[in-house]
Design goal:
Helices cover about 40% and strands about 20% of the residues. A five-stranded mixed beta sheet has the order 3-2-1-4-5, sandwiched between helices. It has about 170 residues and is of the alpha/beta class. The protein has a single domain, classed as Nucleotidyltransferase, domain 5. It is built from seven helices and five strands.
Amino acid sequence: MIPLLWADVETSGFNPASNNMLEIGLVATDEYLNIEGSISYLIKHDKIFWREKTLDFHKQHNPTLLRDLPGALHYTPAVEERLVKWVEDTGVENRPLAGSSPQGVDKPFIRHQMPLLNKLFHRYRMFDARSVYTALGHEVDTIEDRSHRALDDCFTEIARMKKLLKETLRVA
């Protein structure tokens, strides 16, 4: 594999123009999917624009996010600034964006709400872990099996991919 920059965002809905990014996590991995570093932030908002079904989802599957959100310290621009600094300081810029749904959810929110961070990912390459599982005929566990926090979701996808590579492709 190639070194990747995994990302996951938790949001208040599916529309990056009208819903909020609530939490973001980034994890850098080397070519063997060993973790090189990670960072995450809750994002402060004066008002959160909820899609009703998304709020219900978080209440059921992600109560710690709802509990912790009032303690968020930084608004989106400050979080973006800190993430850009982390990416540059750790030397992981220009890596493909990786995750469980980078093209469908994560990338659109990052592109719309954190354009400076978006510029640090590889311009067009992405690694969609769920597509790899599907192509190889593997089932993915349900959302109930994890905390559904941004950083935990990244770690979960990395562990799944390592297991898949070891079992299916016989790669250590």
